[in-house]
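A quick aside before the break. I want you to see a complete sequence-to-structure record at least once, exactly as it would be stored in a machine-readable document. Don't worry about memorizing anything.
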Amino acid sequence: MTPEQQKALAIARARLRLQSDQNAPTSGNPQPENINNMLPLGAQEIGQYADGKIYKEVNGDMFFVSPSFATTSQTEINQMLRGEKPQQALGNPGGKIGTAARSALQGLTFGAGDEIVARGASLLSGNPYDAELKAERDRLALGRDQNPVTAIGSEIGGGLATAIATGGMAAPESMIGKTAQNMATGAFQGGLYGFNAGEGGFDNRLNTAKFGAGIGAVGGAAALPLAKGASAIGRGAGNVGAFVTGNGSKRFSSNAMISAMRKSGKTDAEILDALTQAEREGQGMFTVADALGDRGQRTLSGVARSGGKPSETVSDFMLQRQSGQHERVAGQLSDAFGGDSTAAQTEAYLKAARGKAADVAYPAAAADAAPVDLSRALSAIDNKITTGTGGIQLGKIVGRDSTTDALQSIRGRITDGNRTLTDYNSVLSLKQEVGDMIGAAKRAGQNSRVRELTQVSKELDSALEASSPAYRQANDQFAQASSVIDQLDAGKAASRPGSRAGNNIDQFNTLTPEQQAAYKTGYIDPVIGRVENAATGVNVARPLTSDKFTAEAASMANDPALLARQLQREGAMFETSARALGGSKTADNLADIKSVNGLSALQALFRGDLAAAGGKVAGGVANLATGKTEAMREELARMLLSSGRKGSEVVSGLADKSAKSKALRDLLMRRLVDASGVGGGVSQ
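That is the input. The structure line, written in tokens, reads:
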């Protein structure tokens, strides 16, 4: 074994003996003679440092021995002799990285990191806990001396990490509630940190805990106003910087939009759903401003009244969109109630189809027809007139000036007093002529004549049905087709404002599907007419929100909920336009005054008005700080007037930005609160 190895072994044995003496129940100071017997030959004690001793050999070399540490570094030993804290004597804290790790552990454990490390080191090495704790705290102190910024920053950062990881309490909405919560959080964390960082027994630690809790509570109370102030200052400075770099208009308009979204009372998902649903349901012109409701309308109105190009952009968009409301609503009503045909077109189509079927069915019934018995028809006529004499009149019935003349003419076609008409085809022709007479009387408003001729027509029908079963079937088909046509007039009557919704709905519900289709066409046709003929600038959707129309549409429309949503959007879009274009004389006057009297800073300077020039410069800076520029308003108008997929992209982007901003604000608040608590303990 070399001399150096023998020396190292001797020093190690001496250190072990010191440890053994320290662990002994009755241990006192190490016995010099026992240690001296283990040291290199001729070594003499020349000084003490901490819990160890410094020795010098005969060749002049020095070494240091303590229960927890031993070294032969002459530099370190000289530092000990001068009363300094040498790095090796304390145990190397590991530079900035080691200092950061130890300090962060202190913060993570609210000041208990040194005790945890000491306990673990004691278990692994067998050294006394108090010795390991003293050594670890000396290393912490040395690290703070050598790297103060790293040590304090890491310790506070560690405390914040613990606070964030363990924080799950929902933030109150009110300022008082938030402040109280911040004070409680700061006090708790400061007290815990102060207790762990304290020295001595429980009473001493309790005192440091009280001090830390007080510091934490004060810091928690100040966190909210500090965060708000920092946020406001940051926004202003950020806006100026953004405008200087060319990003100001987008930055501030985004912030204004995020503010409008928050104050709208709607979630981001609700706004996105409104835009997506509107586009899907044929209203792709429904904008972000519309989806935001009152808040969006107010924001857009502010842009519209500010003058300049942004105002023109809003005005042009709104005028163009509103000019199409009549056509949009008419189309929505047409789709909801069944088709593109008007009532007149539907009636013409139905009558043509009925006539075509009758032209086939009625002649075909003659094949199996028996002689027609018109005795009941004659009796009905004779009840109204006095029978005259003469032969049967041949040829067509000529027009008469009275109902009696018409009935007499029909009777003359049936019988001459001796012979009675029995031929199926002749009776069918007579019945059709009577039908034409009834139609003419209706158009002339001759209600009495219509009533008398209708009675005769029914008797002729009955006689033909008795003569031919096929005629009865053809007649039923004709009557069914006629009943469908009749519902056009019934629906038209139901659309009148004076009709009762309950009666109309009951009547509609008794109809067959074919009759309901005609009823709906007759009902909606005049409603569409009123919409199309309404004056320009009128909200044509408003009358369609009445209780009567709403109830009737709920029973008749193909998709009542869809129609209700469409009409509601039309109302919202009209309201947005009205608020944006309604104008304010006060606002207009202020804008006019500004345009007439407003001088630029350069103009004011040339005129020698230094105060005005300075005011203009200050105002310009203020406008930059608050984002009140025309470019910003133009960008804001673009966002508010976005719709469909583009509108959804705008809202999604703003929602992401808002979420990130909120997370940063919350983190700042938590850091201010938690730093106050950690700071209370660090100050110990």
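Two observations worth writing down. The first helix runs from residue 3 to 23. The chain has a mean pLDDT of 77. We'll return to this after the break.
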